[in-house]
């Protein structure tokens, strides 16, 4: 992840097939950019990021499922040492994130993921549906009489935050404290990082670590029936989880547990409101909700891209991805690939064979996908049932600065 000077802004690219996700028009709607790149240069060497950019579905899947030749570990990347040197060594953010299962290869990835897999199975997620429904109803009760709300602040952020806090054993009242920390960490996942972004992510990491160290100390003395207590028990066995891994895993679960679902609810509701024919179809047949959520995930996904490093030279699409070089698999582009999805730019809540990859693919497929689906289904179904006249207010919409994670800052609606 190259860094930019403290005062520099990414320069716009000229030409129709370049990749610059930091342009305002890209952030507003990246899909026309993806389409041009996928059509003209689907395996694209990008000087700006120093990475290969992959925009075809088949190429993204090929890389993500090939854990023998592609690594999720940043230590495999030839530019990682230079990145660290530019910071004067690994700071708190890097030290913590390199312990995430998200950025590990087997056997460490397998060991860490196994510790939490049972808490996120489809069966467990489905069993949480009544609790998710109760939270959604409570949140909407607070605003029902007002006729207007910011959907992000009222529902999309608090719902998944409350759910993951309850699972972990974190006081839900502390959720507001995490919002800024999580936002600063989310920006550190982007392919280009400024010194300001790194500094903010370091500060957020320190705040998260201080918070969880105190909470872990309490749970050691008084274990509860929650995921954090389970992780502590695993750490105390000695050979399954170190304390640093425990803290990093707690931060990852808390951040990932609300960021992506928040964007699913926000992006998905916006897509429905902008496609009134599909909105009417769902209102007339609420049993389409499961299919609808899958289509919303494909159409404007929460996670737009993820990176892998080649462990050997790999030929792909007539190009060679050299050992030690990273390839960015652009999930948002893959999910609009016409080779995989007929008429991909059309929202179609009855779409069949919808094998999108917004949750990734292969061994790193998102652990929380079943829970995100349940939360999205309940939130959108309840919104349309309780607020049948839900509509956009016409106020300008602003997207968050992150490019790896795609979501709105706010979504003003009336009902």
In words, what does this structure look like?
By secondary structure, this protein is of the alpha+beta class. It has one domain: Orthogonal Bundle (Cytochrome p450). 50% of the residues lie in helices and 8% in strands. It has 18 helices and 10 strands. It has helices at residues 24-28, 31-40, 57-64, 80-86, 92-97, 108-117, 122-127, 129-141, 151-156, 158-168, 175-187, 195-221, 227-236, 243-274, 276-284, 289-299, 331-334, 369-386, and strands at 43-46, 51-54, 70-71, 148-150, 306-310, 314-316, 319-321, 326-329, 391-392, 412-414. The strands form 3 sheets. It has a 5-stranded mixed β-sheet with strand order 1-2-8-5-3. A 3-stranded antiparallel β-sheet has the order 4-10-9. Helix 10 (158-168) runs antiparallel to helix 14. The protein starts with 23 loop residues before the first helix and ends with a strand. Residues 1-14 have low confidence and may be disordered.
